[in-house]
Amino acid sequence: MSWRTQAWKTLSQRVAGTVGGSTAAALKSLGIVSIDDLLRHVPRRYMRSTDNSSLSDLQPGDEVSLLLRVVRSEAHPTRRARMWRLSGTLTDGHDTIDITFFGRQHYVEHWHGQLKPGVQGLFAGKVGVYRDRFQITHPDYITFDEQGRVNGGAKRNVEKLEWLLFTSGLLGIYPATAKLPTWRIAECISSLGLPLVEDLPEPLPAEVLASVDVVELAEAESDPGGFCHRYRIDPQVFAGRGLPTLAEAFAWVHRPPDLESAFLGRQRLVFDEAFAVQATMAHRRVLAQRQPAQPRPRRDAGIAAAFDRSLPFELTEGQHRVGEQIAEAMTKEHPMQLLLQGEVGSGKTLVALRAMLDVVDNGGQAVLMAPTEVLAAQHAATIREQLGELAQGAGLFADDQHTEVVLLSGSLPAAQRKKVLLKVASGEAGIVIGTHALLADEVQYADLGLVVVDEQHRFGVEQRALLADRAERRPHLLVMTATPIPRTVAMTSFGDLDVATLREIPAGRAEVSTTVVDEIVHPHWVDRAWQRVAEEAEAGRQTFIVCSQIDGEELPRPMPRDRHAYAKHLEDGGDPLPPRGAEPLHAWLSSEGGPLAHLRVGLLHGRMSTEDKDRTMESFAAGDLDVLVATTVIEVGVNVPNAAVMVVSDADRFGISQLHQLRGRIGRGSLPGTCLLLTTMAPDSNARARLDALSRTRDGFQLAEVDLAQRREGDVLGADQSGSRSSLRLLRVLEHVELIEQAGTAAEKWVTHDPDLEHPGVADAVDRLAERAEAEFLERG
After folding, report:
1. Which residues fall in a coiled-coil region (predicted)?
2. What span, in angstroms and rounded, lies between the C-alpha atoms of 591 and 584?
3. For the chain, which has fewer Cβ within 10 Å, the N-terminal or C-terminal residue?
């Protein structure tokens, strides 16, 4: 890419070739490829040479850089010839950790001479456990004198490391690896990065930087865990100050004159990322507004009105409200771009169908793209059932109250696929439902007026755009998700879309109770779960049993005696209990003597052929199976109102949103539902906390916030969903709400008066984000 500004030309230079091959490889493992990556790899914390690190949160396997004081150091020979051992103990003032070195006598005596009791140093290595104590074997280290100057270490040329300790007395501790300790990273930044940016021209407009209220950013960081709270900085010290230039920001982050400057430098680098995302979203909105679209107004007579009259129930207030919002948006001469988020079971598909029928009434076609063939087939069956006689005929005329619904998937036989393609190309099919097969070049549409993308998080930005580009005029776009999206996530990932929300659950839906079953503390509860499944079958009700994987070990698996025995087993290096696979669980449950041997038990997973999957799902939906053992292929869209129980094996292997989706498969009719979450995780684990949160509420919006707090936005969004998130190094939607909002205001204002991004710095910021996202997409293969 040809950069417009000197700043981005400088920063885009690669580090490979300027450092050794092993160092370049180690940097790449940290996501550092360019000078820009290197300079944006900022310290995770700052310390003074008089401070100590805290040992309270260490875990075995952690790669650490710790500023500690030596309290014990002993050197003595080992039983091996000419080999000596140095053992020592370090402290943070409260807790201790051991260190051990092995080597020839003269090496050990040298280390012993440097690591006398009372000496303070920075020690880096991997935390292990020996005789029930934390230990680092052969840590890299440097030591400081009483004035805080580097005076020794395990590396040669220690004098080159003196710049590690800034003149301010602050020490930056970087995210590091075993092959690349914090001081080696700092050395690379000092020798490669900082000299290149001393005279770096400012790429962003002065008006954009001046619009940021630094005091508000500091106040947001005054909450527990924030920078200002951690370092006891009064936000008012920033009164009258603004964000620094980019060159100042890099210098202040890596060699801060004081903590206040370090904060400002970091805020500027985070703002760059937030502004690039928000400018990208604002520019997408501008481009969408310029695209011509065919208005598709609601008609008083036609298939949509006939469908509304045929409904045997009243729409919820939310469905009415969102339906009007969509109808109004589709009267415009530019394309609607709307994200519809709603609770599991809130009736999103019905809202989408009404919009699709409005398009059919206007002589157009509507497409619904689903992530899996199972879900696409379910949608086709449900929509045909809902339309009834309205789907019996064909035609795309405003006065025709019939249309055809077709299903297009990759597994269709050639002859059947040809027939479907002809109906789509001719316009005979008004509603086309399918998977990624809808994106194939051979699929030609007569008049594509609306694209509905179900489960938006399963598709990338590029995929939804590719389908929208298939029409002569840009079709209206409706993307749906049953995974509620926290506000800050929506701002950074769906800022190019308007957002509509459905919270109400239609009347008649039953309550669902959720219970966490600790298999180690209460192993007999698992037996009771299988009994409950059998009782439900005898009462004429059906059950889903969900597994995290297809394959697995033979069942039943041996269980530890109790929680303490299992914890000791893991501490001694024993393997955790293997998860139950769908195939072995199905075989055991339905085998002779198995707990469900007398029931009709089906199996469904992704490796089955499409025909077998369809046949199994149809049998379960028809009531010909009592129990369905499945993987997450039944996560979304599957609608079996008679299913009243769900048992999720190894529930800790799923995320909150995925479990919430799975749970939405039961309680879809008038029968009360029961969801049992089987787990072997300890009560104080993060995984168990997810399950406990799920057992307390069915509010998907509340669970989304818990999910975001636990898993961080990288996991919640996923690179494919946002199209950009994986390119961001510092921006965190939980921590930087205020900054994201200010960046959004600044980006909206700037793009309004510079809609073509003629300012080179803004254009480069947007292009860099897209380039990095594309590069990472290609790397993922």
Report:
1. none
2. 10
3. C
Measured distance CA(650)–CA(660) in Å, rounded: 15
Q: Are residues 320 and 400 in the same domain?
A: yes
Residue 72 parent element (H or E): strand 63-77
Residue 731's alpha-carbon distances to 276, 278, 559, 709, 761, in angstroms, are: 11, 12, 43, 14, 20
| In a shared domain, residues 353 and 428 | yes
pLDDT digits (tens, 9 = 90+) for 168-226: 567 788 888 878 888 789 889 988 999 999 889 999 999 999 999 999 999 999 988 78
Let me know if residue 313 belongs to a domain: yes
Task: Note whether 337 and 496 are within 8 A (CB).
Answer: yes
Name the domain count of the chain: 3
Read off the pLDDT band of 368 (50, 70, 90): very high
8 A C-beta contact, residue 189 and residue 163: no
Q: Helix 259-290 crosses helix 760-780 at what angle (to 10 degrees)?
A: 90
| Same domain for 541 and 397 | no
How far is residue 148's CA from residue 121's CA, in Å, rounded to a whole number? 10
d(CA 378, CA 395): 23
Is 457 among the domain residues?
Answer: yes
CA distance 341 to 484: 6
Contacts of residue 471, defined as CB under 8 A and 6 or more positions apart, other chains included, come to: 445, 447, 448, 449
Which of the four pLDDT bands, split at 50, 70 and 90, describes residue 157?
Answer: very low
Dist. CA 33–CA 38, nearest whole Å: 7
Q: What three-state secondary structure class fits 315?
A: coil
Give the strands of the sheet with 673-679, arranged side by side. 512-518, 673-679, 643-648, 542-546, 627-630, 601-604
DSSP assignment letter at 243: P
Residue carrying structure tokens 């004098």 = 159
Q: What is the CA radius of gyration of the chain?
A: 30
Torsion of Cα atoms, 606 then 710 then 44 then 17, to 10°: 10
Backbone φ and ψ for 40, nearest 5 degrees, come out as: -90, 5
Return the exposure string of 291-327: e unless at least 16 CB atoms fall within 10 Å of the residue's CB, then b: eebbebebeeebbbbbbeeeeeeebbebbebbbebbb
Angle between helices 610-621 and 373-387 (to 10 degrees): 40
Tell me which residue has tokens 């002065």: 206
| Final residue before a domain boundary, out of 127, 144, 164 | 164
Same domain? 520 vs 665: yes
- Same domain for 365 and 475, yes or no, is yes
CB 700 within 8 A of CB 242: no
**What's the CATH number where 389 sits?**
3.40.50.300
Reading phi first (left if > 0) and then psi (alpha if -120 to 50, else beta), residue 681 is in beta
Task: Select from 144, 164, 184 the last residue of a domain.
Answer: 164
Q: What is the CATH number of the domain that holds 114?
A: 2.40.50.140
Q: pLDDT tens digits, residue range 370-387?
A: 888 878 888 898 899 889
Q: How many residues does the structure list for the chain?
A: 781
Range of the domain at 90: 50-164
Name residues whose C-beta falls within 8 Å of residue 347's C-beta, 6 or more positions apart in sequence.
315, 316, 319, 502, 506
What pLDDT score does 300 carry?
A: 85
Q: Would you say residue 139 has pLDDT above 50?
A: yes
